[in-house]
Amino acid sequence: MLERDIIKHMSRQGLKFEGNGEDGVLRFVGNGSTYIVKVLDETDGRLELISAALQSAFWAAKGEKAYILAPKSMASTDELMVIRLHGIGLLLYGPHGIEELPPIIKHVRHDERKDDDKTPIELESMQRVLEKVERLERFIHRINDVDALASRLERLEAMYRELSNKLLVFEGMRGSHAGIAVPEMPSSKSNDISPGIELPSFMKDNPWLNILSGKG
Amino acid sequence: MYDEDYKKRYVFGADYGTSEFKYGPITQGERPLTVESRGYFPERSVISQIMGVDREVVVGKDVTLFLESGAELATRLVYPMREGIIMKDDARAWKVVRELTRYALEEFKPKGWGFNGFYVVAALSAVAPRYMYEKFFEIFESMAKEAGLVRSATIIPQPLAVAIAHKKTSCVVVESGHGNTQFAPISRAPIRGAVIALNRGGSDANAIMAEILKDAGYGDLAAEETLVRKVKENLGLLPADLDSAISFAKNNPEAVRAVYAVPGTRLKIDLAENSWARFLVGEYVFNPNHEIFQSYFKRGMPRPRDTKVGDVVFYGMLDMAEAITTAVEKCPVELQPLLYSQILLSGGNFSWNVPERLKGICVDSATKIKRMMSGKGIENVNVIMASEPQYSVWRGCIVYGYAVPASYSWSWEKMEGWMNF
């Protein structure tokens, strides 16, 4: 079903279906180029996406038009942007059919590249990257503020821990000074003691509570 | 009151079993979480870093993601415990245990104010040597210092935890697992010098089941451990008296015949004229000394041998009633009747089916022990099966952690109390 949809989509662009290649790969020809579509389905995960991206980048570097067909829900916008930046087109499918996202930087063979051969698409993508960098800089400033707050919090927690430990030692000393065990747990422990958190059923009426609370 | 309220939130139980690690805080309720007691040491590669794996060892549910890597699986997948014991110098095993501990504590580490580390109660095998205690305390100390995950920790023997969970203050806990069986008398505390261990457990019942399958013409299936275990669980029987049961089976072959259809396959296992051997499976766990087992030993089935792990002797051929009496007779005479009156059986190795038409010929584990004790002249024996035995140890840990006062410091002499960090 998916294969039929993609063949229909590509043929609308004047491309002829050449057949299935290795596992999950469809080949098309037209406009003087070979188009290779790597198909991922709902059962594939992030690892398969990384693998498809690496494989497609290899094809794109060889001068072929590489595409990845994937479910819309598979990757985040940023991940899709990164894949497109490497000369790979995306065909995203969902309930409303196939949506095509062309590569942002088109792969051109070295012998064809010229210094002044910057396409408008490349300029547009660089502009987007620049915006992202600026946004990242703003985030880093905010992270510095959060770091400062976090270290203050850590210091306060350390102080709190230290005070609690001192309290424990103090209670222990008070108990031994009096010559009796510190009654940390009141004798009513065998039943539900204080409101709020309910204790599990295996603790209720458990004779071990009294035995163990008398330790020390 | 401060400690009580704190403990109501932050007591944490950790049951370090040979095959499964069960863990969770008191707020988990009635049942802990469970992961397999194992760790995977992944190959350090670019791909693993892309996948976000920069740890030396992976534990918990993530291990499954690595299990298809084939040839190296056996060397990379580490089960840290053997018979409940971790060898002192087994560095990889200790790394797995450390990672499992970190994994469990971090899963429940609360965010925000008020958390000052868990009160961790770890349960180890009754035969765990002292160096294991020391190593575990080192792990907890590092968790306390590196991540503030532990406030105090203590370690208790698993049979004590079982007794606590079942509200028995004086009893003999018999815990039978895959590879061994432990007999631990308890009287308001574990009686450490009286613990007895058998080198016999569920795996031995599997071994004789495999031999029976071979005799019945299913030799090709006898090597498939999981299948053999399933056949044992479905066809194995525990006889009240082995001789009478075999005699009954020979006179009523159809009454003991059963067919096990392996789910999801076309395979049906029918022991046919060998169906009488179903009784051997249960009997072998409880008493391997019957002369009928000699023929299996002669044909190559390994005889359970006395073995020493660390400083502990695991007896091979001691029958269960003998093991109970040996353990109890190491306790004060005055206490012995009380211990015999509360024998608590725990562990999957005590689950035996009693088919309706074989009632009287087959029995459950509690009845079998009672009969065996009676055969040794010990009456007034009360044997009970632990309910939900897989969770008993964790539950005991939670009760112990909640009840023992925070100010009670760890004593190496008594092997109890809190190690504060």
Oligomeric description of these chains: heterodimer
Question: Can you count the beta strands of chain A?
Answer: 6
Provide the CATH architecture of the largest domain in chain B. 2-Layer Sandwich
Structural class of chain B: alpha/beta
Spans where pLDDT lies below 50 across 5 or more residues of chain B: none
Number of helices of chain B: 16
Span from first to last CA of chain A? 73 Å
Largest sheet of chain B: 7 strands, mixed
Based on CA atoms alone, the radius of gyration of chain B comes out at 23 Å
End-to-end separation of chain B in angstroms reads 21 Å
Q: Would you tell me the overall average pLDDT of chain B?
A: 90
Strand order of the largest sheet of chain B: 14-15-11-10-9-16-17
Ranges of chain A with pLDDT <50 over ≥5 residues? 109-115, 175-195
CATH class of the largest domain in chain B: Alpha Beta
Overall 3D geometry of chain A?
elongated
As a percent range, the share of helical residues of chain B equals 25-40%
Number of strands of chain B: 18
